[in-house]
Amino acid sequence: MPFTQRTHSSHDHPGRLLALICCCLFGLMGIGPARAATEVTLQLRWQHQFQFAGYYAAIAQGYYRDAGLQVVLKEGGPGIDAVDEVVSGRSHFGVGLSSLALDYLNGTPVMMLANVFQHSPNILIARGNNRHLADLANGGRIAIMVGQQDAELKAMFVDEGIALDKLDLSTTSRHLEDFLAGRIDAFNGYVSNEPYLLDKLGIAFTSLKPQTYGIDFYGDLLFTHQNLAANDPALVSAFRTASLRGWQYALDHPDEIIDLILRDYNGQHKTREHLLFEAKALTELIQHQVIELGHANPGRWQHIVDVYRRFGLVHGQQSLNGFLYQSEDPLDWQSLYPILLIAGAAILLGSVLLFFIYRNNRRLARELADKTLSEARYRVMFETSPAAGLLWADDFTILDWNKEATRLFGWTLEEVKGRRFIDFLVVPGEQGLPLANLERLQHNELPHSINNNLTRDGRQLTCEWRNARIPDTPGGKACNISLAIDISERLRLEKENRRMAFRDPLTQLPNRRLLHDRLDRLLRRLRREGGYGSMLFLDLDNFKPLNDRHGHALGDLLLQEVARRLHSCVRESDTVGRFGGDEFVVLIDGLDRNPETARQQAERVAHKVLTSLGECYRLQQEPGAEIIEHRCTASIGVTLFDAQDSETGIFRQADAAMYQAKTTGRNRYCFAEEPILEP
């Protein structure tokens, strides 16, 4: 594989002198000019945009040319699969996603060369402001990519306890167009693209990011075929190095690269403003100021695989050893053989020794500089991390403790260094969890846990922890790093959101959605155990005059009192819910197996409810205010059902019986006499 050599003066290093001698000798031997550059193709994931700025820069700045390569960029688009293009041999390299690991584990011969985006730009965009995942679970069509390209978006729902089969998922190709037309309620997008377009159109939306829910995949990555990596490692190394140089240049000179895109790569007709927005968003995801470009964390990759395993896409403990690229820089002495035939042994040996010493010293200096840079990057990342960080030995002694840990837990580094964190940070009785995590870390696992922790002022926080093992190094023992975020408020909000999703905010009774769920559970129990259940469908009589005369505030007080009275009429195993407005539903469980006896039991409950709700209501909006007396009865429809009946039929029969009670005089209950039929 030919590489263009840089020119240097011949008087500063022995190695350069050797190179000059080699050139002269090759000239004497009649060796011809360097071979033409090798043409390789790179398949992009999508159409040209700043997302691929590094590859444009590598071409424009001549980095590929310097590496002896002529790179052809193949634009992506709908129906073009970068993995298929590379595996089929139509392209040498491709830009992929974290799902490439799944392809590898399923037998596809691919190798990940470099993680360009340290965080995924993939987000779920929902219509309207302040939307939550629970809102989408309650209805609305969601457009995602085909296959497992959006596994991180699906994982958000799963981790929030929302089953995927409860979602209306679609894989239509025109996501943004369908969203603007109102055909879908949410769709997958890039943080660098669709938010800009929706803001420009003045459309309210909510960006739901997987990172907010603890799902942090890599974004765009560079990959190739394993055969190419094995058969021509020099070519793969040269392409990888030149590409990362291009990305470094693009991130350091975004305005210049945007000019280049507008001139040569703007098939999407994006504006400069749009490209600047994209550049800023993607730079934040790449994080090249603190993380080395292309860096891949094996532990983080294993966590991504664990997410796929939760979906049943990965089975067993398969290894990623052949998936992650290992850089090699072998020294090729074959080019020196002609010198051995021509030059004297003493001169050649001396030159080679000098060259070897020079290269060895330079490598050692580079390794020392890299180590120093890595340590500096670690210190910057550790101290500026938004997560509380602990570095600890296998005996749980704290070695390091960052500023966020001080802010979160209250102790300073000086106060905790050398102490065992299980003695003051872990809630008494829960010391077994760190012991279990240590054992898993020593077996190269990456335990993730949610547990309670103590603070210096005696408070108790719920924290989400992620842990990793730092292996033995020359002069140092293995240790462990743990990062924690306080999720106490998130858990409280999630609990409140779940309560709001299934409870009527005025009466705190189950709402219509939860009533359907309770009825479904009751029917399933009847299918297992047999017997009967009953539904009472209530509509209040004489409620509207109270609202008209005294206002809705007093009407709300009456509805709350109705809820309390209904609860007093039934058992804890029964369900009282508000169906909407002044309509309520009572589900009665555990009735007798004999239908006549079950009917009598339901009738007794209906009579008790009718009597209780018919008593006078004494309503007072606030202490000292006038007490308003009001009489309000109920019309009740009662239906008896067993395991063979359907939810729709049960509600329809109860509602029809309630209407009969309403039209025949009110303040009474009527049984649904007709059998329950499917609509």
Q: Top keywords for this entry?
A:
679 residues, alpha+beta, D-Maltodextrin-Binding Protein, domain 2, 5 domains, 5-stranded mixed β-sheet, 25 helices, 22 strands, 18% strand, elongated, disordered N terminus
Describe the structure.
The protein is α+β, with helices and mostly antiparallel strands. It folds into five domains: 34-119 and 219-310, Periplasmic binding protein-like II (D-Maltodextrin-Binding Protein, domain 2); 123-213, D-Maltodextrin-Binding Protein, domain 2, CATH 3.40.190; 344-380; 385-487, 2-Layer Sandwich (Beta-Lactamase), CATH 3.30.450.20; 503-671, 2-Layer Sandwich (Alpha-Beta Plaits), CATH 3.30.70. It is 43% helix and 18% strand. The protein has 25 helices and 22 strands. It has a five-stranded mixed sheet. A hairpin with a 5-residue loop joins strand 13 (448-454) and strand 14. Helix 12 (254-264) crosses helix 13 (272-286) and helix 23 (552-569) packs antiparallel against helix 24. The longest helix is centred in the middle third of the chain and has 40 residues, at 345-384. The chain is elongated. It starts with 13 loop residues before the first helix and ends in an 8-residue tail after the last strand.
